[in-house]
Amino acid sequence: MKILVSTWRTIAANVRRTTAIPKVKSFMKVAFSDKYLFYTNVTISLSLSSVGDLMEQSYEIYIKEQTHYDFKRCAHMAFSGVAVGILCHHWYKVLDKFIVGKTVDMVIKKLVLDQFVFSPVMIVTLFGSLALFEENPYENFKEEVRDKFVKLYRAEWMVWPPAQIINFYFLPTKYRVLYDNTISLGYDVYTSQVKHSKPAKALLEDKIKHHSS
Protein backbone atom coordinates (compact mmCIF):
# COMPACT_ATOMS: atom_id res chain seq x y z
CA MET A 1 0.00 0.00 0.00
CA LYS A 2 2.86 2.40 0.84
CA ILE A 3 4.35 1.70 -2.59
CA LEU A 4 1.05 2.58 -4.30
CA VAL A 5 0.71 5.83 -2.33
CA SER A 6 4.31 6.79 -3.10
CA THR A 7 3.85 6.02 -6.79
CA TRP A 8 0.71 8.16 -7.09
CA ARG A 9 2.47 11.04 -5.35
CA THR A 10 5.22 10.77 -7.95
CA ILE A 11 2.68 10.74 -10.80
CA ALA A 12 0.89 13.77 -9.31
CA ALA A 13 4.21 15.62 -9.00
CA ASN A 14 4.87 15.02 -12.69
CA VAL A 15 1.64 16.76 -13.74
CA ARG A 16 1.25 19.38 -10.98
CA ARG A 17 2.52 22.33 -13.01
CA THR A 18 0.16 21.91 -15.93
CA THR A 19 -3.36 23.30 -15.93
CA ALA A 20 -6.93 22.00 -16.41
CA ILE A 21 -7.37 19.82 -19.53
CA PRO A 22 -3.63 19.59 -20.28
CA LYS A 23 -3.19 18.37 -16.69
CA VAL A 24 -5.73 15.57 -17.22
CA LYS A 25 -4.05 14.52 -20.45
CA SER A 26 -0.65 14.63 -18.79
CA PHE A 27 -1.92 12.59 -15.86
CA MET A 28 -3.37 9.90 -18.14
CA LYS A 29 -0.19 9.80 -20.18
CA VAL A 30 1.98 9.31 -17.10
CA ALA A 31 -0.37 6.92 -15.28
CA PHE A 32 -0.73 4.64 -18.32
CA SER A 33 2.92 4.78 -19.34
CA ASP A 34 4.98 1.58 -19.24
CA LYS A 35 6.75 2.86 -16.12
CA TYR A 36 3.62 3.26 -14.01
CA LEU A 37 1.06 0.99 -15.72
CA PHE A 38 1.42 -1.81 -13.16
CA TYR A 39 0.63 0.54 -10.25
CA THR A 40 -2.25 2.11 -12.17
CA ASN A 41 -3.82 -1.26 -12.89
CA VAL A 42 -3.46 -2.47 -9.30
CA THR A 43 -4.96 0.78 -7.97
CA ILE A 44 -7.92 0.54 -10.35
CA SER A 45 -8.64 -3.04 -9.30
CA LEU A 46 -8.26 -2.21 -5.61
CA SER A 47 -10.57 0.80 -5.86
CA LEU A 48 -13.37 -0.80 -7.86
CA SER A 49 -13.35 -4.00 -5.79
CA SER A 50 -13.91 -1.79 -2.75
CA VAL A 51 -16.66 0.20 -4.46
CA GLY A 52 -18.39 -3.01 -5.61
CA ASP A 53 -18.41 -4.36 -2.06
CA LEU A 54 -19.71 -1.08 -0.62
CA MET A 55 -22.53 -1.11 -3.18
CA GLU A 56 -23.43 -4.65 -2.18
CA GLN A 57 -23.28 -3.74 1.51
CA SER A 58 -25.56 -0.76 0.85
CA TYR A 59 -28.11 -3.13 -0.65
CA GLU A 60 -27.77 -5.55 2.28
CA ILE A 61 -28.35 -2.69 4.72
CA TYR A 62 -31.37 -1.57 2.68
CA ILE A 63 -32.99 -5.02 2.87
CA LYS A 64 -31.90 -5.30 6.52
CA GLU A 65 -29.54 -8.25 6.09
CA GLN A 66 -26.97 -6.20 8.01
CA THR A 67 -27.21 -3.08 10.16
CA HIS A 68 -24.05 -1.15 9.27
CA TYR A 69 -21.10 -1.05 6.89
CA ASP A 70 -18.37 -3.62 7.54
CA PHE A 71 -15.23 -1.76 6.52
CA LYS A 72 -13.01 -4.70 7.44
CA ARG A 73 -14.88 -6.78 4.88
CA CYS A 74 -14.40 -3.95 2.36
CA ALA A 75 -10.65 -3.90 3.07
CA HIS A 76 -10.48 -7.65 2.48
CA MET A 77 -12.25 -7.24 -0.87
CA ALA A 78 -9.79 -4.47 -1.72
CA PHE A 79 -6.93 -6.88 -0.99
CA SER A 80 -8.47 -9.44 -3.34
CA GLY A 81 -8.69 -6.62 -5.90
CA VAL A 82 -4.93 -6.12 -5.59
CA ALA A 83 -4.33 -9.82 -6.26
CA VAL A 84 -6.68 -9.77 -9.25
CA GLY A 85 -5.14 -6.54 -10.58
CA ILE A 86 -1.65 -8.05 -10.51
CA LEU A 87 -2.81 -11.13 -12.38
CA CYS A 88 -4.77 -9.16 -14.99
CA HIS A 89 -1.87 -6.81 -15.65
CA HIS A 90 0.52 -9.66 -16.47
CA TRP A 91 -2.08 -11.84 -18.21
CA TYR A 92 -2.90 -9.28 -20.88
CA LYS A 93 0.77 -8.61 -21.54
CA VAL A 94 1.42 -12.33 -21.99
CA LEU A 95 -1.60 -12.75 -24.28
CA ASP A 96 -0.55 -9.87 -26.53
CA LYS A 97 3.02 -11.08 -26.62
CA PHE A 98 2.19 -14.59 -27.84
CA ILE A 99 -1.00 -13.93 -29.81
CA VAL A 100 -0.24 -10.94 -32.00
CA GLY A 101 -2.82 -9.16 -34.12
CA LYS A 102 -6.48 -8.16 -34.06
CA THR A 103 -7.94 -10.48 -36.63
CA VAL A 104 -11.09 -12.42 -35.77
CA ASP A 105 -9.00 -15.57 -35.44
CA MET A 106 -6.62 -13.93 -32.94
CA VAL A 107 -9.49 -12.48 -30.90
CA ILE A 108 -11.19 -15.88 -30.66
CA LYS A 109 -7.96 -17.51 -29.50
CA LYS A 110 -7.54 -14.91 -26.77
CA LEU A 111 -11.18 -15.25 -25.76
CA VAL A 112 -10.93 -19.04 -25.46
CA LEU A 113 -7.78 -18.84 -23.35
CA ASP A 114 -9.28 -16.08 -21.22
CA GLN A 115 -12.43 -18.04 -20.42
CA PHE A 116 -11.01 -21.54 -20.05
CA VAL A 117 -7.66 -20.73 -18.42
CA PHE A 118 -7.70 -17.30 -16.81
CA SER A 119 -11.28 -17.10 -15.49
CA PRO A 120 -10.90 -20.20 -13.27
CA VAL A 121 -7.56 -18.89 -12.01
CA MET A 122 -9.16 -15.55 -11.15
CA ILE A 123 -12.01 -17.13 -9.21
CA VAL A 124 -9.66 -19.38 -7.24
CA THR A 125 -7.44 -16.36 -6.54
CA LEU A 126 -10.46 -14.43 -5.22
CA PHE A 127 -11.38 -17.16 -2.76
CA GLY A 128 -7.76 -17.84 -1.84
CA SER A 129 -6.87 -14.21 -1.13
CA LEU A 130 -9.97 -13.71 1.04
CA ALA A 131 -9.45 -16.99 2.89
CA LEU A 132 -6.19 -15.58 4.28
CA PHE A 133 -8.26 -13.36 6.60
CA GLU A 134 -10.55 -16.12 7.87
CA GLU A 135 -10.33 -18.78 10.53
CA ASN A 136 -9.21 -22.17 9.17
CA PRO A 137 -8.17 -20.61 5.83
CA TYR A 138 -7.56 -23.87 3.97
CA GLU A 139 -10.83 -25.49 5.06
CA ASN A 140 -12.83 -22.34 4.27
CA PHE A 141 -11.10 -22.04 0.91
CA LYS A 142 -11.99 -25.62 -0.06
CA GLU A 143 -15.58 -25.21 1.09
CA GLU A 144 -16.13 -21.97 -0.79
CA VAL A 145 -14.56 -23.25 -4.00
CA ARG A 146 -16.76 -26.34 -3.79
CA ASP A 147 -19.96 -24.40 -3.09
CA LYS A 148 -19.49 -21.17 -5.05
CA PHE A 149 -16.99 -21.71 -7.88
CA VAL A 150 -19.54 -22.95 -10.43
CA LYS A 151 -21.94 -20.12 -9.61
CA LEU A 152 -19.30 -17.46 -10.28
CA TYR A 153 -17.88 -19.24 -13.32
CA ARG A 154 -21.35 -19.48 -14.86
CA ALA A 155 -21.77 -15.72 -14.33
CA GLU A 156 -18.38 -15.15 -15.98
CA TRP A 157 -19.67 -16.77 -19.16
CA MET A 158 -22.64 -14.43 -19.24
CA VAL A 159 -20.58 -11.24 -18.74
CA TRP A 160 -17.13 -11.62 -20.23
CA PRO A 161 -17.21 -13.18 -23.72
CA PRO A 162 -19.03 -10.21 -25.34
CA ALA A 163 -17.09 -7.70 -23.22
CA GLN A 164 -13.74 -9.27 -24.06
CA ILE A 165 -14.41 -9.27 -27.79
CA ILE A 166 -14.45 -5.46 -27.58
CA ASN A 167 -11.44 -5.49 -25.25
CA PHE A 168 -9.26 -7.70 -27.46
CA TYR A 169 -10.30 -6.21 -30.80
CA PHE A 170 -10.38 -2.48 -30.15
CA LEU A 171 -8.25 -1.59 -27.09
CA PRO A 172 -4.49 -1.36 -26.67
CA THR A 173 -3.01 -3.51 -23.88
CA LYS A 174 -2.48 -0.62 -21.46
CA TYR A 175 -6.20 0.19 -21.24
CA ARG A 176 -7.47 -3.38 -20.82
CA VAL A 177 -7.44 -3.58 -17.02
CA LEU A 178 -9.21 -0.20 -16.82
CA TYR A 179 -11.86 -1.44 -19.26
CA ASP A 180 -12.19 -4.73 -17.39
CA ASN A 181 -12.75 -3.04 -14.06
CA THR A 182 -15.25 -0.57 -15.51
CA ILE A 183 -17.29 -3.42 -16.98
CA SER A 184 -16.86 -5.57 -13.89
CA LEU A 185 -18.16 -3.06 -11.34
CA GLY A 186 -21.58 -4.70 -11.52
CA TYR A 187 -19.92 -8.11 -11.52
CA ASP A 188 -17.92 -7.10 -8.43
CA VAL A 189 -21.20 -6.41 -6.64
CA TYR A 190 -22.37 -9.92 -7.57
CA THR A 191 -18.99 -11.40 -6.58
CA SER A 192 -19.26 -9.80 -3.15
CA GLN A 193 -22.80 -11.13 -2.77
CA VAL A 194 -21.74 -14.68 -3.67
CA LYS A 195 -18.62 -14.57 -1.53
CA HIS A 196 -20.45 -13.39 1.59
CA SER A 197 -23.51 -15.59 1.18
CA LYS A 198 -23.65 -18.60 3.45
CA PRO A 199 -22.27 -21.85 1.97
CA ALA A 200 -24.64 -24.77 1.45
CA LYS A 201 -23.44 -26.52 4.60
CA ALA A 202 -24.20 -23.51 6.80
CA LEU A 203 -27.63 -23.03 5.20
CA LEU A 204 -28.46 -26.70 5.90
CA GLU A 205 -27.37 -26.33 9.52
CA ASP A 206 -29.55 -23.22 9.89
CA LYS A 207 -32.50 -25.07 8.40
CA ILE A 208 -32.04 -28.00 10.80
CA LYS A 209 -31.82 -25.64 13.78
CA HIS A 210 -34.96 -23.81 12.64
CA HIS A 211 -36.99 -27.03 12.40
CA SER A 212 -35.67 -28.40 15.69
CA SER A 213 -36.51 -25.21 17.63
Task: Please describe what this structure looks like.
The structure is a single chain. The protein contains 9 helices and no strands. It has 213 residues and is mainly α. It folds into 2 domains: 1-31, no CATH class; 44-212, no CATH class. α4 (71-98) packs antiparallel against α5 and α6 (137-170) crosses α7 (176-183). The protein is globular and about 45 Å long. It starts with a helix and ends with a helix. 25% of the residues are buried. Mean pLDDT is 84; it is low at 200-213.
| Whole-angstrom Rg | 19 Å
Q: Helix tally?
A: 9
SS content category: mainly alpha
Strand/helix succession: HHHHHHHHH
Count of individual domains: 2
- The total beta strand count reads 0
| Residues in β-strands, percent | under 5%
Subcellular location: Membrane
Family: Belongs to the peroxisomal membrane protein PXMP2/4 family.
Protein name: Mpv17-like protein 2
Organism: Spodoptera exigua
Looking at this protein, list some descriptive labels.
213 residues, mainly alpha, 2 domains
What's the SSE blueprint?
Layout: H1 2-15, H2 20-31, H3 37-62, H4 71-98, H5 104-131, H6 137-170, H7 176-183, H8 185-195, H9 200-212
Helix pairs in contact: 1-2, 3-4, 3-7, 3-8, 4-5, 5-6, 6-7, 6-8
Q: Would you kindly provide a brief summary of this structure?
A:
With 213 residues, this protein is mostly helical.
